[in-house]
């Protein structure tokens, strides 16, 4: 199995600013690559740095580019790292792509932080790609949700079935 990993940005990839007097985090290299380096995975993967945006800044044009990238890819197993705020909207936009298994994941705290949920969410997402049939899903909070049955609870910040 070969997994295509697509970075779109979000908290999972955020790092401390590299500019002087920087206050905001910036989106860095794909966190998933650092996670996979530590675990010696038993599968092949390729990573595309498609965009480095906070999910609140992802546009319709960005989603169209993501969709086009997925459709044109040879891989049938796709992992997308994405910010959690608009992850359900992107998953819904990608939901009817045929012949692919697509899992979106992210993190509430940057992977660079010791108490990050990034590695856990990436592991759940990759495990899901091994077992799910075609379709689009979100892997967050130790659960996997179909794209058309998920929402982010605005009070708790957690993903849940709708």
Automatic annotation (TrEMBL):
InterPro entries assigned: Asp/glu_Ase-like_sf, Asparaginase/glutaminase-like, L-asparaginase_N, L-asparaginase_N_sf
Instruction: Specify one Pfam family.
Output: Asparaginase
Q: Which Gene3D superfamilies match?
A: L-asparaginase, N-terminal domain
Domain L-asparaginase N-terminal, which positions? 2-155
Name this protein carries in UniProt: Asparaginase
Q: Which organism is it from?
A: Roseivirga thermotolerans
Tell me the classification of the organism that encodes this protein: Bacteria, Pseudomonadati, Bacteroidota, Cytophagia, Cytophagales
């Amino acid at each position: 199995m070969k997994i295509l990993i697509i970075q779109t940005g979000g908290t999972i990839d955020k790092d401390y600013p590299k500019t002087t007097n920087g206050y905001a985090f910036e989106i860095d290299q794909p966190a998933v690559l650092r996670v996979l380096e530590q675990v010696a995975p038993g599968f092949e993967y390729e990573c595309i740095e498609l965009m480095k945006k906070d999910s609140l800044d992802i546009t319709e044009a960005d989603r169209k580019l993501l969709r086009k990238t997925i459709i044109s890819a040879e891989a049938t197993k796709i992992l997308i790292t994405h910010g959690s705020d608009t992850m359900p909207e992107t998953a819904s936009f990608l939901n009817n792509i045929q012949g692919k298994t697509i899992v979106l994941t992210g993190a509430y705290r940057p992977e660079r932080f010791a108490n990050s949920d990034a590695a856990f969410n990436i592991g759940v997402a990759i495990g899901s790609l091994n077992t799910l049939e075609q379709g689009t899903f979100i892997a967050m909070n130790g659960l996997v949700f179909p794209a058309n049955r998920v929402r982010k609870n605005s009070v708790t910040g957690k993903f849940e079935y709708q």
